[in-house]
Amino acid sequence: MIEVDRIVKKYGKKNVLDEVSFTAEKGEITCLIGINGVGKSTIMKAIMGLTPIGSGRIRIDDLPVNKMAYEKIVFIPDTLTMPSSMKIGEAMQFMQDFYANWNEKRAQDLLAFFKLKKEDRLGSLSKGNSAKANLLLGLSLDADYLLMDEPFSGIDMFSREQIAAVFTSHLIEDRGVLITTHEIHDIEHLIDKVVLLEQGRVLKQFYAEEMRSKEGKSVVDVMREVYLA
Ligand SMILES: Nc1ncnc2c1ncn2[C@@H]1O[C@H](COP(=O)(O)OP(=O)(O)OP(=O)(O)O)[C@@H](O)[C@H]1O
């Protein structure tokens, strides 16, 4: 479990995260939802140790975040980080050489699933295929938790559907997934837990299925209630 406990982050005098607490469990998809600027990316960076926090704590499987903990997490950015001149196959080979936890079988499965071609250069890929290549490279690492910042942003409908299908497939296995988004419609049916954010604070967190079955409300219904109140 990733446990974010009352974390506070300031940029200058501005409180960007104000006692944010939530958990993301293994085997579940947890979604941080909020409009631009509420602090979603800052939370991701804090979990990855890429930005220091003022107070609060972050634990992964009951251990404080340290170098070992980072071997449990993969952060999949929204842009390709490999040189654009590299072919997909070369990028896969690079990852295999560099990371001990590269899972070649899963990488091949993802290549087929996304219908990507090894000989295509990263720089020549469409936005949708770049996102898929990014996912391929990240998901092929055997890590217990996957963090993805806006994996569906700016991607065409068919690519979004294909990417969404990965989340419900065996390719995710029983890993914990934490994603951020400001567009919920396409992915509402995939999400287990929802964390609604506003101006650096958690307004509400709930399980989507429980909300549907007990209160008959969709995630969008709850968002309307919370944000338009
Ligand atoms: N390096 C920085 N210096 C100063 N302020 C920053 C810095 N990074 C982020 N901020 C501010 O912190 C707040 C939260 O930013 P963050 O990027 O976490 O939001 P977000 O919810 O991920 O937004 P988006 O959906 O646009 O990515 C914003 O007001 C942003 O302007």
TrEMBL record:
Keywords: ATP-binding, Nucleotide-binding, Transport. Residues 2-224 form the ABC transporter domain. GO terms for molecular function: ATP binding. This is ABC transporter ATP-binding protein. InterPro entries: AAA+_ATPase, ABC_transporter-like_ATP-bd, ABC_transporter-like_CS, ABC_Transporter_VariousFunc, P-loop_NTPase.
